[in-house]
Amino acid sequence: MKRHPHTLAMTLFVIFCLVFIVAGYASAEEYEALKGVKSVKAIFDFRAGSPKSAVLQLKLINDTFKDGSLTAITKNPDFVVAFSGPSVKLISKNHEGFSPEDQELLDEIASTVAAMAKSGIRLEICLFAAKIFNVDPGSVLPEIQQVGNGWISLIGYQTKSYSLVPAY
Known about the structure:
Shape: globular
CATH class: Alpha Beta
Strand content: 5-15%
Largest sheet: 5 strands, parallel
């Protein structure tokens, strides 16, 4: 009996997909806190001012958004990242005053922000903070919505049952 050359590859692909689907559902059971949860809504109060710390935290938020533990509960977790405080300097296209090493990290932040937006994570910047930290609103990364006062957003999202997650 002659087999099609792609049969083995297709079989392995299907097995691989099934393992990941099962692993995703099993991982939700790993967290006692997720038992009975039907939807996931989170607002991240993002204030990290260090480029190195910000890269790590943004990647963690993005990875958490895609984590099988959450996607087993709902296909579309609802995440918002609200930039305020010193973090507003890190989401500007203006890299003036940053070391060459930090400028590379700022490029990585911009890339991560673009990936987050593409995944469906909403992003906001507090223009009050931008003004205090001398960030020109015209230099803010295009994926980020500009709001006058980030605290009003935090209040609004929490009133709508979003979990507040500090990211300092």
